Amino acid sequence: MKQKNIFKLIRTVEQMNNENIMQFTKKFQHPLGISPILVLAELRTKGPQKQAELAETIGYTKGAMTNISEKLVRLGFAERLYDESDRRTIQLQITTAGMNALKEAQAIGEDVFMLLFESLSEEEINQYLMIQEKIVQGIESRKKK
């Protein structure tokens, strides 16, 4: 019975995620998906980084990170910084346009989630939050192993 419920939970989470992504994509004016937005958020948080560092931190392949970086630079949301002493060392840095796009993405994301959770009572939100926190703790503890 537990396995049947787990598969039902997985399917429900997939439906919820798919709906959130579709709602976000309809509202976000830029041709970016979630992956480039995660890269912009990482650049905003930690500053300029090498693509290889970004790929490792976020969990993307180097090839995927190259494609994401190309797109961000082409759209003007990021720029490449070249080390004067070693031209092979290139870092990616978020631009003002990238900061603005990231702020817009976060605002839209908040709106999408507010709509998602509006059908829950305060008690249900608290229960859901406790469950999510427990799941995150499990993820963090597995990372340490």
Automatic annotation (TrEMBL):
<keyword id="KW-0805">Transcription regulation</keyword>
<keyword id="KW-0238">DNA-binding</keyword>
<dbReference type="InterPro" id="IPR036390">
    <property type="entry name" value="WH_DNA-bd_sf"/>
</dbReference>
<dbReference type="InterPro" id="IPR036388">
    <property type="entry name" value="WH-like_DNA-bd_sf"/>
</dbReference>
<dbReference type="Pfam" id="PF01047">
    <property type="entry name" value="MarR"/>
</dbReference>
<feature type="domain" description="HTH marR-type">
    <location>
        <begin position="3"/>
        <end position="137"/>
    </location>
</feature>
<keyword id="KW-0804">Transcription</keyword>
<dbReference type="InterPro" id="IPR000835">
    <property type="entry name" value="HTH_MarR-typ"/>
</dbReference>
<protein>
    <submittedName>
        <fullName>MarR family winged helix-turn-helix transcriptional regulator</fullName>
    </submittedName>
</protein>
